[in-house]
Amino acid sequence: MTDILNVAGLTKCFDGFTLNNISFRLQPGYIMGLVGPNGSGKTTTIKLIMNMMKKDKGAININGYDSVKGEVEAKELIGYASDECMFVDDWKTDDVKKTLALYYKKFDETQFERYIDDFDLPRGRKIKDFSKGMKTKLMLAAALSHDTKLLLLDEPTSGLDPVIRTELLDILQEYIVRGNRSVLFSTHITTDLEKVADYITFINDGKLIFSMDKDSVLETYSVVKGSPESFNSVKEILIGCRTNRMGFEGLVLSENAAKLPRDVVCEKATLDDIIVYHRLGIRPWAL
Amino acid sequence: MFERGHSVRILISNSSGVPIYEQIAAQIAESIAKGLLKEGDALPSIRQLAKDLRVSVITTTRAYNELENKGLVTAMQGKGYFVSASDSNAIKAEYLKRIKGHLQEAVKDAKTVGINGAELQNLLKILIERESIDD
What we know:
The complex is a heterodimer.
Chain A: E1 5-14, E2 17-26, E3 31-35, H1 42-49, E4 57-62, E5 65-66, H2 71-76, E6 78-81, H3 93-103, H4 109-118, H5 132-144, E7 150-154, H6 162-175, E8 182-186, H7 190-196, E9 199-204, E10 207-213, H8 214-220, E11 221-226, H9 231-234, E12 240-244, E13 247-253, E14 265-268, H10 271-280
Parallel strand pairs in A: 3-8, 3-9, 6-7, 7-8
Antiparallel strand pairs in A: 1-2, 1-4, 4-5, 9-10, 11-13, 11-14, 12-13
Helix pairs in contact in A: 4-5
Chain B: H1 20-33, H2 46-53, H3 57-69, E1 73-76, E2 80-83, H4 88-112, H5 117-134
Antiparallel strand pairs in B: 1-2
Helix pairs in contact in B: 1-3, 2-3
Keywords (chain B): DNA-binding, Transcription, Transcription regulation
Organism (chain B): [Clostridium] cellulosi
Pfam family, one (chain B): GntR
């Protein structure tokens, strides 16, 4: 089966930051969450998939089309939305519709109008007078209204209230329900991902930490808590930690949990824990 | 015409600590044991179930795989999952395992507060009697 998305050895160097040798793949019919702290390279990765900037090394393949050589075909297959509005300020929804109909071969105007209604977007107002949430919804309406294989969403949930976010999760699950399309979306709101994502790809400081199924991610890591006295015996196996006078809290690989002293508490890690502690790393004991 | 797998009812608890795929598998197994799902009945498709329960496709896949391993459901290529020929032994074995677990807990609790074996057996006897009166 052809991957909907195959990223291999993707590298992009900036002054002071390198997205380094990122590889992952997404098969048809699944939702993948792209996570990582601010500045870790999520948006860069998504922009490279969209060929909105030039990569230094590596290859990106979208349902069989190379993102550079087959850019036109690849982009027909991608529904893209970011947290920055890409439409002209003075446009109204109708202008967006007309423009997209020119740009995409398979643009579905009826479906676009339906999303405008569903999302309660005002047809009479200019986009510059839209709220952040409305702009995001307009981008989503556009992304969902042409015949695509991959939904590529950069922070789609960031400006949205919990009601719309829940609706969006429904839309994403509906999008993959027939098993031939996939979703890649970056987000900080990991509770959304803990519900519906099948795979999690985690980038930290330009490097790939893992790309695997969500259940395995949550089983791979554990959170440990203990007193300052037991810190030294645990230090070696900590991936990252936070310390204060009461003790420490940190992240370990679950397979190392057997080595823990008895007075250290070990519990399940959330995606947030995994992201935060990878970012924090090990700092000297601060008492 | 009813929708495929219409008689399946599943409630997921996010705070129970039991993995979601296990909750799904256990509740479908229960429906089979109670006769709400019968031999040959179609289960909802893996993807539809994931959407309805708002969980990942991998989670529902894992739940169905578990049911298949226990012999409760059968996958038919391209058609989905169906309740297997009712193997009452498989269902019984599953329940026996659960009952054993409950009893083990009871024995452990009894030991903690110093209730002896005879007292515990007596307690069980009373409970069984009460249950049969209710029936």
